[in-house]
Amino acid sequence: MAKDKVAKSAVVGKLMFAVLGMGLGGALGAYAMMDFAGSKAYAAQAVNEARSVADMAENFGTWASSYKGVWIKDDALAGLEIGSSIDTQRYQKSTEKDGVDHINFDTYHRKNPALVQRELADISQKSNARSKFRLTSEKYMNPMNAPDGFDLKAIRELEKSGNKEYFEIQSGELRYARRVEAKESCLSCHGTPEAAPKSISMMYPGPQGYGYVKGGLAGIIS
Fold it and tell me: Which string of b and e fits 96-109 if b means at least 16 CB within 10 Å?
């Protein structure tokens, strides 16, 4: 009887252990599925966030293009840092002080749409924002805009597939790229060095940064 009870106890113990093991395995499996589903949901959220940032950068560039660039007034008294520009215009104005007319000049500098976007991207890179962006291309002019490894891969994938976007996760960080197609306005600076504004061709004599084709892949918002 004692042996029989011991044998039964052993069988019950094994069954309980097996049930516990199945329960633990099921719980771990469910946790893994929840974790996987959570990771997918987080990745989808990150992609949507990246799309919103790319929308903003694209729309900002479209706005600047509609005015053929942005003119910045050079106000030395305000200590404004003008930075790069592609054109400069000076306008004479007359002011009266103590009954005497004084001739002064207002100076304006024009930044083309790509430069406006680049400067916004520079601010983005230096900020504490969760999502940051930059514009880059294989046909970059400024070495600061050179593509990194992901950018080059994305450019080639978008060229091959014809898709609008490409993304992947690297070390827990989403890398996202949206294609930028060359518009007519892009060709005035990026067509040929001969056709580019003198200020551009002097800074960037080529051949790097030229050769854009209307409708072709100009680069990416990364």
Answer: eeeeeeeeeeeebb
